[in-house]
Fold:
Amino acid sequence: MNNIRTKILFTVVLLASASAQPFREVRPEAVGMSTERLERFTDQMESYVVNKQLSGGVTLVLRHGKIAYFDAFGYRNIESKDEMEKDDIFRIASQTKAIVSVGIMILQEKGSLLIGDPVGKYIPEFSETTVAEKTDDGYRVVPAKRKITIRDLLTHTAGIGWGFGAGAKEWEEADILGWYFGHRDKPILHTVKRIASLPMDAHPGEKWVYGVSTDILGAVIEVVSGLPLDRFLEDELFRPLGMEDTHFYLPLEKRDRLTTVYSSSENGITLAPDPGERVGVSMIGQGHFVSGPRKSFSGGAGLLSTAEDYASFLQMMLNGGTFKKQRILSRKSVELITVDHLGSIKFTWGDGVGFGLGFSILEDLGQRGAMGSVGEYGWGGAYHSAYWVDPQEEMVVVYFTQLIPAKNVDDFGKLRALIYQAIID
Structure:
């Protein structure tokens, strides 16, 4: 009798464990992909480690909601020969933007705001903003032609960069340059209010300017919801989606799973400094994700996550706003998020591509010149991570590495080519 009870208990534990997993792993052939052809991708990733171009990484490919490919390669830390594992935690930088953009859409669905609202409605400091226009002998500061809207921030057409435009001197004097805010000991709203007083790079609605727009969106979420950004995202996205390893600052008990940051050099890759320092627009180093002040929740580049956590978020989008029988967004919100909003404004980071509400959108496959599908949406992060969702192929791809700056490595191109060549249906 005791043996029977033990077997029953063991079965229940196994079933509970299996049900906790967000995705079921299947043979690639079961979802129209080739095991043999995917091995080409595995070999390619391992060659980057052997050739000292990458320390390691994790790749997860979902097709039809199931795991077709999930692999960790290389090392979490080269010096200690600590091998990479599938559940390791990565700094995802600008991949935070998509999550925060969805947070804004959740608030719209609650009736708390409209994306056409002026930002100044929620952060009064943005009621009147300025633009630095170049002149023959420097620049002049003029009033913005119109108010910045939430939709401008979502599409990066607010004219707000990283502080390196014509009025860079004023941004430098304010100590606000680049995308990294994790070291600051003030809430993000404090920083955002200071940004409002600085001259922007362009007039709202005239150019696509990548910068701190999504950090401002994070502050809007805090004001409108009455919650710190980390708490809002935990309640509305992370807990419902089972994203248990997604954080702005790492719980100390998880620090052994945090992957190490490396930098490209003439001799391969080198260990990035700890915590590091700003070089140009970027934080080159390990960052303050473990030992920082834990006060500044950067909606533009602050999150840590795992491949499986982030894939859960993307699968929700692919599902039209649902995941594991939970409704996060309406189908119509997802449709609005994943179409081009730029119109005549040129997306400056690639041909054939537009921009939606937090995601790049593939408009013309031939103009881009790389495999994919029209309607595909995605983005990436400064620590050399990337992702995309291909609705036509019902596919999600998440690729995490930790390399900044990344030079002399063609992994992004090979990732795309070798994943798509493995489709056989």
Observations:
- The longest strand covers residues 66-77.
- The chain has a mean pLDDT of 95.
- The chain is about 30% helix and 20% strand.
- Residues 2-20 form the longest helix (19 residues).
